Structures are given as C-alpha cells and as structure tokens.
Amino acid sequence: MGTLLLDPIAFSIGGLKVHWYGLILGSAALIGLLLAVWEGKRFRIPQEFFMDLLLLGVPSAIIAARIYYVAFMWDDYKNNFWDVFKIWNGGIAIYGALIGAIICAVIFVRRRGYNFWRIADICAPSLIIGQMIGRWGNFVNQEAYGGPTTESFLRENLHLPSFIVNQMNVQGTFHHPTFLYESLWNLVGLILLMVLRRQKFLRSGELFASYFIWYSIGRFFIEALRTDSLAFQGAAWLASFVNGLWSPMTWLGFEQGYLAPSYGNVRISQLLAIGIVIAAIIFIIVRRRTVRDLPYYSDPITSTKVVAAEALPGTAEAAEPEKAESVKPAETTVEELPEVPEEKKE
C-alpha cells in the first residue's frame, strides 16, 4: 500500500500559503483562551484581561520556543540563517514556549495587579489543552514521530485509523505516533485538572504545579521514543540513571528511538522533565509549610490596581452625585381636594 501524505498547506490566498500547522496552533490558542475566560467568570475577571494576556503570551511563547530549538540545533541553521524564521516548517520546543509564556505572564499579570499564582491556576487547563491540540500540527508536518515500528502494531495493537497509520509511514518505514501518545496523555491530564480544581483542599499555585507534574511525567516517557530529540553529551552515570527510570516502558513492548552517540546520550527534555517534577513537588510542600494564610483555589481573586482605584477620594466623591441622582425621589404634587363641608353643630 502506498503512503498517503497529508498536504501541509490548507489553502492559498493569492501567493500566500496558509499551513495547517499555523491553523492548528491558532485553534489551540483560541480554545485555550475560551477555557480561561469561562473559568475567569467565576472570579469576576474581565475577559479582556485574558485576551490581552493571549495577545502578548502567544508571540512570546513562539519566539522563545524557536530560540530554544535553534540554540540546540545551531549547526543546522548557522549557514542558513533565514531558515530560523520559517516556523511553519516546524522546529519549536514546548519547554521553550513555556519559558517565554511564563516570563510574559509574570510581567503582565503583576502590572495588572493580580497574583501570578492565582492566574496561573486558571490558565493551567488552557495550557494543557493547547498542547493537546497543537501536537496535531506535528502530525500534519510528519515530524516529532518516534522510532520505527510495524504497520501491524499500529493497526492491530493500537487500532489506529488509516489516516494516522499512513502518515506515520515515513519514506517506507512506519514510526510510533508520539504526537498521538502525548495528545492522549494531555487529554487525560485535562480531565484530571478540571476535576482537581473543584476540590476544596487545593491551594493557590497547586493546580499550575500539578499541570507541570502531569505533563512532565508523560513527556519523560514519550520523549525517549522519538528520534529527533534535543540532546547533549552527559556523564555516563547520568545517561544510565535516565535510561533506568525509563526501563519500565520496555515491559510494554516499547523501545527507545535511535539517538546518535556523536550527537548526545542524554535527552534534554527528559532531564528537564525529571527536574520539573521534583521542583513542583518541593514547591507544593514548602509553600504549604511556610506560607501563612495560603489562599485556596476557590477564594476570591482581586486586583490591587482595581482596589486602589476604588479607594481614591476623587473616585468616591464622583460616585456620590451619581448615586444621589439615581435615587432622587420623584416630585409629588398635591391636587386640590374638594372642600369637605363642616359637620353641623348640634
């Protein structure tokens, strides 16, 4: 059976080619925005706040993701500098995107007077649903796939539809659909976050930390299946340690994707995933023990800028006349009443 590859170009407008990759990433951002706005209404946060955050956060995430990727793949770009800007061909790193988005969010949220951790909790489900959808951009571009496998494994063991199986046929060799593994992992994570945020015990910042824990665990195990991982040459004990943690995957019949020894022996995303999980757990424990009156997730969220504006004397004085005018009693008129005859004296 021949390979049926999807056209990465969705449509063209004149000479402008619109790629599926961009449309999928745009859809992911939009759905993430709607999810944040919906949850923000519970805390009376205006939707314009999240729209502004998206307009600033998405470009910051894309730029940081590209810089992160190019920095580790500089040898592929140093002689073709203009290729650095061709992000529609793929080549952005999610951890880089998270770094850029978080830096932007910290600055923006604080300038608006909100607590960063409270807003980060609201946005956590938006992040994971964005990643869940965005991975399908890798599918269309036929990138970020895993090591070689068999067509029978994809069809009979995983029961995947033909359009996925065919797209995983790269130059005559079938590969693991790691994009699909991560997308499904994020779907489960989304459900868990949605349930977790309604629990009464959840404190500020813990939903955001839980997102990182869940995503990083999945990324650690899925990353080793890939053949295009960013890597570096680390100590032998470090490589053995990482491989030992991943070894349970072999019980399920999986094998690590090929990584050229000359390129590196430690996958950067796996090492980052381990560090993030440890850091997130420590973050939750330390804050619970050291921060007094740590707010719960369900507690009200207020902006210090709004509170300060309402406390200004001029604001209060200006509001008084309007209030007085709105409650001004209606004028009443007394009509002449018919004269009542005096009672007769006896």
UniProtKB/TrEMBL annotation:
Any one GO molecular-function label of the UniProt entry: phosphatidylglycerol-prolipoprotein diacylglyceryl transferase activity
Chain spans, region Disordered: 315-346
Membrane topology: Multi-pass membrane protein
Enzyme class, broadest EC rank: transferase
Enzyme Commission number(s): 2.5.1.145
Cited HAMAP family: Lgt (MF_01147)
Binding-site list for a 1,2-diacyl-sn-glycero-3-phospho-(1'-sn-glycerol): R135
Chief location bin: membrane
Entry's family note: Belongs to the Lgt family.
KW DNA-binding (keyword) present: no
Protein name per the record: Phosphatidylglycerol--prolipoprotein diacylglyceryl transferase
A Pfam family recorded for this sequence: LGT
Entry keywords, A to Z: Cell membrane, Membrane, Transferase, Transmembrane, Transmembrane helix
Function according to Swiss-Prot or TrEMBL: Catalyzes the transfer of the diacylglyceryl group from phosphatidylglycerol to the sulfhydryl group of the N-terminal cysteine of a prolipoprotein, the first step in the formation of mature lipoproteins.
Localization: Cell membrane
Transmembrane regions listed in the UniProt entry: 20-38, 50-72, 92-109, 234-254, 266-286
Pathway named in the protein's UniProt entry: Protein modification; lipoprotein biosynthesis (diacylglyceryl transfer)
The organism's place on the tree of life at top rank: Bacteria
NCBIfam families linked to this entry: lgt
InterPro entries: Lgt
